[in-house]
Amino acid sequence: MMTPVILITDGDLYARKAVETAANNLHASCLAKSSGNPTLRTAEDLLASLPYCEPHPVFLLFDDAGTSGPGPGETCLEIVVKSEKTEVLGALAVASTSHQNDWCRVDFSITRFQEITAYGVDKEGFAELELQRVRGDTLYNLDQLNIPVICGIGDPGKMGRWDAPERGAPVTTAALKEILHRSGYTS
Question: Which of 21, 32, 35, 144 could form a disulfide with 11 if both were Cys (CB 3.0 to 4.6 A apart)?
């Protein structure tokens, strides 16, 4: 049986706490052991854990820790996407300010004010000038994978505290909720 998943291209402690909070808000699961900066777990380890995650969908975190091009997070993410064990609903393309930024196309972005925009966003969650493009360090291969919905977002759990877990991680929650809606997912 395939497990419905949403991919998040950030794995630091702040992102993990924001995604765990959003998962709780949305009655979903966050596979906490997928977090790390950079990603330390293997794709095989993560895939083996999916059957034990309830409720669905499952949110997975991937991080390259600033590596340009294919890093450990992207390598793991690609294996998970191509696995017959997963049904990929979408991805959160997290913006970063690393000096070796890669970029990807997004279907839409969520600003720090929880507004949907056709523009990309920066790390702080402000709309950028480029349409449907986000710059970050763990999104090098998102364009090359068959991901139905990609949402740009600032730095989960941060964005000037607009997405703090203590506040319910409202930006991350709104982004994941919109991916679920656009993917047509029903539990």
Answer: 35
